[in-house]
Design goal:
The protein is about 25% helix and about 25% strand. It is α/β, with parallel strands linked by helices. The chain has a single domain, classed as NagB/RpiA/CoA transferase-like (Rossmann fold), CATH 3.40.50.10420.
């Protein structure tokens, strides 16, 4: 399998570039596309933003963010590219917008990930005022994804059709379960 087709990824990036959420953000937590994920390459070339990307900290089970610019990228044992950790870590409190990958999302912002819980722990640690955007394709948004007590949803969804608010009712239910 390869990444989402280039024209679809470019359309998703255009939708983000034209959004108020992206325009207002100074520091954007992005990701480096893995497998079939939407490739954020066109967005990451936007020089006016500070992009940070995750590094998996296996000892704590968390994601640590490092600046993309100047990072030495290495392949993690799970297969994705990540900073080698030689650049300074950026606190999650310095992040204004979080772009979240996933295998599928539901209309309420529920997310089906790869099963490690890394993004769930990150999303649960963020203030509610930080927008979180599930980055995906139209065909990967379904009515409902399986939800476990630790799962945390996203506040927005972006696809090749544009950016939209996730259903508040569903997002609240997912976030409430994550706190229990």
């Amino acid at each position: 399998m390869g990444q989402a087709p280039g024209r679809l990824s470019a359309s998703v990036c255009e939708a983000l570039l034209g959004s108020e959420l992206f325009g207002a953000a100074r520091t954007v937590a992005a990701y480096l596309a893995y497998d079939d994920e939407v490739d954020l390459g066109p967005l990451l070339a936007h020089g006016e933003k500070r992009f940070v990307v995750p590094r998996v900290d296996a000892s704590s089970g968390s994601l640590r963010f490092h600046p993309l610019q100047g990072a030495n990228l290495v392949r993690h044992r799970f297969g994705q590219l990540e900073p080698d950790g030689s650049t300074p870590e950026i606190s999650a409190s310095d992040i204004d917008l979080v772009l979240v990958p996933g295998l599928a999302f539901d209309v309420g912002g529920g997310r089906l990930g790869y099963g490690g819980g890394y993004y769930d722990r990150l999303l649960a640690s963020l203030p509610g005022s930080v927008p979180t955007v599930g980055v995906t394709l139209d065909e990967l948004i379904v009515d409902a994804v399986p939800v476990e007590p630790h799962d945390v949803g996203v506040s927005h969804l972006v696809t090749q059709s544009g950016l939209r608010l996730a259903s508040a009712q569903r997002r609240t239910a997912v976030r409430s379960k994550a706190r229990s």
